[in-house]
Amino acid sequence: MAERILIRAREYHDSVRLMRVSEAIRKSPGVTEAMVMMATPNNKKILGNAGLLSGEAEAARADDLIIALIADCEANAATALELAEDSLAQKPGGAAGVALPRTLDAAQAATPGANVVAISVPGEHAYREAKRALELGLNVFLFSDNVALEDERRLKELAAEKNRLVMGPDCGTAIIGGACLGFANKVRPGKVGVIGASGTGTQEITSLLDWLGAGLSHAIGTGGRDLKAEIGGATMLQALDLLAADPGTEVIAITSKPPSAEVAEKVVAACRAVGKPVVINFLGLGRTGTEGNVTFTDTLAETALAAARLIGANDELPALSEEEAETYLAAARAKRTGGQKYLRGLYAGGTLCYEALLGLKELKVQSNLSAGAGPLPDLFTSVGHTVIDMGEDDYTDGRPHPMIDPGLRNQRILKEAADPEVALLLLDLVIGYAAHEDPAESLARTLTEARASAAEAGRELPVIVTICGTEADPQDHAAQVARLETADILVTRSNAEAVRLAAAYLEDIHG
Amino acid sequence: MAEAPNPLLSAPLSVINLGAELFAEALRQQEVPVVQVQWTPPAAQDDDLLDLLDTLL
Amino acid sequence: MTDLKTRIEEANGKAFDILRQGKPQIVDVAPAIEVVPGMKPNLILHSAPAIAFAEMCGPHRNGVIGAALFEGLAATAEEAEAKLLSGEIETAPCHHHATVGAGAGITSASTPMMVIENTTYGNRAYSCISEGGGLRLLKWGWYDQGVIDTLRWQADHFAPVLKAALAASGPIDLKNIISRAVEMGDECHNRSVASTFLFLKELYPHLAAMELTEDVRASIKFLVESEHFLLHAIMAGAKSMLMPAEGTEYSTMVTAMARNGVDFGIKVSGLGDQWFTAPANDVKGLFFRAEWGYEDAAPDLGDSSITETVGLGGFIQPCAPTVTQYVDGSLAEAIANTNEMFEICIGTNPDVRIPAMDFAPAPLGIDIRKVVKTGITPHIDTAITHKDGGLIGAGEVRAPIGCFQKALKAFGEKVQG
Fold it and tell me: Which CATH superfamily is domain C247-411 in?
């Protein structure tokens, strides 16, 4: 075994880049662990846990870079280190030798046509940059989280004054005129405009709009706290005005967790006033039906369907044939052992997880999200029915989001497979821009390995995976489905369907 | 003073990206114009100076 | 961009171009009283921002007293101190007289001066000639009979020889020497061996052509033994390049950095003659003898950081990997330092290239806005002086952020009214 720990003084890279470099090195031959991180106290802890904290690394400053890796031999360690150095040397953006701007102002000066600033810097620095962007008259896509609620309120006040949008903080997805910001899918052009308080909620609806043949004009993100009383739906209301005035938008769909009654009333009132049909999805509120121009829906899939129907798109929601699903589940039922009683749901998409919890209300489910579920006593050990959002900070601390790097979820899958009480795995696979380039490959391999170990213990392990994405996404949707199906996985096109099938399978067990 | 209407939905997107290069790469993949800012955390100091810097730099 | 920012960018572009286009040449050697503007028989110049004699650190006090004795302004140290305190003997920063001085920067009426002309703009700057090698020199705040004898010999015998040789050679292109020396292992502050050789190469034919008197022989011997002889000329060259860039309205470019062993001071182009100061940091480095340590060291001292102000020295450490050994450093560390300096500079200097960084042009023109924004302060190679005088080590030091913050606040008040 060979270890390399290298400190590079005063070299800053953003954490996502470093995670991707780390992941690239882990794939290098013979490498068993690799971590490339800034030497912050938190990251030193993570390195310590991996046994990669040398004295030198311990002494490094927070603005120093640490490259740490373990390989099976000296030659492979040297190769991996070279790979790390090459990856880090690659210039982001501009052509070689062209200096990148160091500030927002400099960037704006160099690109007078810029109209959106995407911000994903650490939360404590995000407010200042977003404020500056608004002052410069630019719209803001604010991916950063950990922005104080009070700062969000101030930003949105300034945005209203400047007549610009702050999408976020903690905004994962937006699609403006077909251009994807953050994690988003390539959706065909159409006349439905979407406003979403959550990233994967918006991804699910917009992808389904594509499958339904309806397409999308724009999808605007608001950030998860926009409908809190303190913020009062400031971005949601501005976005409604924009879509109301947009000639390319004929129907509007909005999605959010249920807001406070007061904000809900304000948003519904605004929707009634836009002069276009609006589909409102307050996930989990259980409100359905049509009142004037406003239609209420319960699930993300129903939201997409209702909006599609309103513009006259008549395609059906993509779904498995009843026979296909029944064949798979019947085979699983036949092979199930008596001890296999519980569902384990491991989600990368937060709102997909939330929707699953709502759909599985009848079961006693534990989760790290509330959504009607009981709290999971140990986040790293499932008990009974457990459905978790692995994109939450609880799990991602210092590691990439599972939509970028499936490593952590793969570990958890193997752990669940070793539990004789597990009857069914329920997973999501989110594709699209900024997501992992080939997530099905890594998931299929992990599931094959997981099932092999379960088989050794005399168990079969059925798996349902819902894919969120479109046929035009860069990962090639059909290839992703095919790869999973080759590994004998039941693949659904909507989360609602996946949840329904999972619930049906479990009903047999628990009556 | 009333600001100009927001052109967000009517003009082609052109992005300045601060932070994760992943997002700039995704935009480039879509052939959306994007400028990556080589952002580094500001040094810790008082807010007056940071405000002044906003005015001067 | 706002109007104000545009004005600042334009002003910095202008100041930067002035700095880039400066072309220093070594043109003469002459006593300070004959060439330095405002020089007087009872005036002793020292490095860095103005400081009252009573407040001076050890090396400065010793240096000033030594100069008073050398000039015959006092017969004893006690008498010199009394006259300095009473003001009968005056002191002033070198910088206020178009002059820069290494270490304590002690310069008095009969000190032989290197005269540098910035031929692009026609202005001149000055620095005393090197006292040669050795740890106990006036510039390190040390005086004894030996030091004073050397100064006397330099003034009476060495300087005339050098002057004659220079007259014969004609102006020697300092900019060209620097461009070549940085590719030969010099960063032109803590190491100026290659520059010195290149200078002597220009001078030797003319020394050899002179009548080989005792003075000429002794002068050649002295030059051969002074391997960092050219540093003082490089400093004056830097000053001569910066002077035309002073007083550019709206420019945030630094035009001087200097330390007096108490405070670190900077001047900013758009802020006129005012110094902005903060307590000088301690130098980190290697000591020449085991008996010396950090407790013996005076804080950072001298005008030599004028070299960093023109993007030499600590800004281009990778040019002189030997220098990094003072701080147990590595080439990678030196490159990291230079990469940081790019972040606080207005532009780069194609006349100074860094071989170890694929001949990247060096960072040039410090912008106080970028220093405050990034928290990265200029990185300076420097000597370590004993708090009671004498050279005891060498290493590196960071400028304190405080003086940049003060300057930026003053700049904000000035331009925002």
Answer: v583 domain like (3.90.1700.10)
